[in-house]
Amino acid sequence: MAIPNPNAIYPNPAIKSLVFIKNVVQRATIQVGDFTYYDDPVNPENFEAHVTHHYSFLDDRLIIGKFCAIASGIEFIMNGANHMMRGASTYPFNILGGEWQTQTPSLTDLPLKGDTVVGNDVWFGQNVTVLPGIQIGDGAIIGANSVVTKDVAPYTIVGGNPAQPIRKRFEPDVIQALLDLAWWQRDIGWITKHIPDLMQQVPTVAKIQRLATLK
C-alpha cells in the first residue's frame, strides 16, 4: 500500500473532509509541515479563514509543525486583533477613518505578541481558539472547546477556557527521550516501518532509546 502523498490536498480520497494544510494555504506567513491535516466537513480547503486578524503589515507568522491533527472549528487569532491598552480606552478610533485616522498608533505602540508556533504531533480537538503569540510544544493535546491563552509545554494535555494543564502525558524522563527521538524528523520510510512502535507501545525510556537505534 502506498504511503500518503504529502503534496496531495486530499491524501485519502475516501475522506473528503480531510486536507493536508500546507497544500491549501496561500499566505507566505502561514507555514505548515508535511502530513499536518485539517478535518472539516463543511469547507476543509478554507483553512486560512480560520487564521484571523492576520495582516501582512504586521509580519507575524503562524508556524505549524509536522503530523499535527486539527479538528474543525479551529481559530488562530493573530496579532491584528490587538488594541492599545495603556490608555483609558481600548477603542480603535483610527480604524473608523476621517479625522480619527490621524490618531493611528505606530506598531511599537501595539501589544504585539510575535509569531504563533505549534510543534509537531499536536492534536487539537474541535472548536479550539488560540490567542496571538502562543507557543505549543511537541506532542501536546488541546481539548475540545478550549481557549489557549498561555504557552503549552510539550506532551501536556490542556483544556478549558482559559485552557489549563490537565496532566502530562508521560513522566519527564520519557518526554525528554521523545523530544530527543524527534520521530517526525525521520525519513518517511523509517516512520512507516515503525508506526506500530509509535502508536501501540506505551513509551518508556528504554523502548525509545532502542527505537532510536533501529533502521
Entry keywords:
7-stranded mixed sheet; 2 domains; UDP N-Acetylglucosamine Acyltransferase, domain 1; 4-stranded parallel sheet; alpha/beta; 215 residues; 4 helices
Give the CATH H-level superfamily of the largest domain.
Hexapeptide repeat proteins
Proportion of β residues? 15-25%
Number of strands: 15
Provide the domain count.
2
N-to-C span: 20 Å
Mean pLDDT: 95
- Biggest sheet strand order reads 1-3-6-9-12-14-15
Unreliable sequence segments: none
CATH class of the largest domain equals: Mainly Beta
Shape: globular
Largest β sheet strand count, sense and barrel closure: 7 strands, mixed
Estimated radius of gyration: 20 Å
Helical/strand content category: alpha/beta
CATH level-3 fold name of the largest domain: UDP N-Acetylglucosamine Acyltransferase, domain 1
**CATH architecture grouping of the largest domain:** 3 Solenoid
Helix content: 10-25%
Order of helices and strands: EEEEEEEEEEEEEEEHHHH
> What's the helix count?
4
